[in-house]
Predict the 3D structure of the following.
Amino acid sequence: MSTGKVDALLGIVFGDEGKGKVVDVFTPQYDVVARFAGGPNAGHTIIFEGKKFVLRSIPSGIFDEGKLNIIGNGCVIAPDLFMAEAQELESAGYDLKSRLHISRRAHLILPTHRVLDRAYEAAKGKNKVGTTGKGIGPTYSDKASRTGLRVGDIQQNFQEKYETLKARHEQILRDLHYTDYDITDEEALWMRGIQYMSQFPITDTEIEINQALEEGKNVLAEGAQGTMLDIDHGTYPFVSSSNTCTGGVCTGLGVAPNRIGEVFGIFKAYSTRVGSGPFPVELFDEIGDKIREIGHEYGAVTGRNRRCGWIDLVALRYAIMINGVTQLIMMKSDVLDTFETIRACVAYEKNGQRTTTMPYDTEGWQAVYEDIPGWQTDLTQMTSQDQFPEAFQNYIKYLESALERPITIVSVGPDRAQTIEMN
Ligand code: GDP
Ligand code: IMO
Ligand code: MG
């Protein structure tokens, strides 16, 4: 943790690394927690004291009373889903309105953005991205096309702006011959969501964050998705539509690069991916099924099976470079507790050619593995590093040496308490 700085906690693979859990654990050390990219395509799970929450748009620092949480300008927000998410927290006893600010500049996801998401996916057929269906791509497209609606528009001529954008979407849908949809109920709920959202402070969050930094306060930027889903650096076109990397922190919160402090790169002890796209480490055998079953690898947002495989050092090294990662956080170590041998992908191979750096097109590459002995010990009850079996210590050392960064946190279970700080 650094003073007057923005530390970033970023998923560095394909998302679902456990960002929500660690942001919640880190929050006591920070003054402000802010989301800078993505929207309700994210599903961040937090478990403590027998309670479980899955957050989509609300930052994972929300459970700590007295901390300011921000939905930054780089985010996209669906008012109806936001209302459902916030009301669930309110009924669990958390007073959100005093601690959650929303950027005026964040973009609104309209019901017709979600229809467009489905229509574009249907048009792509077998090349579909496998999106979460939350309207993310169409909303960021409108942002880039300068036709989007922003949260700040709620306060100015809103109905007219809404109707104009909706009519534009309806025209695109007619052109695509995608007319079999009915948003009547969804739209009514969405409008209620707009009213509900208006009760929250809608502010110039970039100014608030910079003022906090000037006062020497600490900000934690909570990543969504992961680097391999980044619009520029991921496995394009099988990516999300925002910058999920450190660069996205600067643009998505309005902070200068020299304000960035620590960059925590978070990954699992193995790999998963949800949705389509290249995944050289994917296991189609019983080992993949075993990882999925033990790790409960089913999507928090869509319930889809997550594709599973061994850890991918090629992708991790690339993500560490792109993000300027200073510390690593390894999650879900316990999922590998029963494996006799653990494998790590050290290179990709295609047509006799081998690469250890991320290729432009990851399609069709085969993973090249090194084997590491498994620890075959239950890690879930361990509370400090000195209880770790030697084989697990060796796996950590192996990764630190291959990735040239220290692993400073190890997670051995989903609960807040199952988090071990390394010396
Ligand atoms: P996020 O999107 O990066 O916040 O991650 P998700 O919440 O989508 O997925 C992580 C899943 O793994 C959730 O179900 C967590 O409860 C769970 N989880 C987090 N850390 C651990 C861990 O160390 N061990 C196990 N077994 N589960 C974990
Ligand atoms: P968190 O924050 C895992 C994936 C989708 C799809 C692609 C594009 O929980 O880690 P989108 O709806 O964004 O247009 O989908 O990106 N995807 C995620 N995968 N975790 C996420 O978020 C994801 N958000 C999007 O499955 O392949
Ligand atoms: Mg998730």
Remarks:
- The pocket of magnesium ion (ligand 3) is lined by residues 15-16, 42-44, 300 (CB under 6 Å).
- The longest helix spans residues 158-175.
- Residues 212 and 218 are 8 Å apart (CA to CA).
- The mean pLDDT is 97.
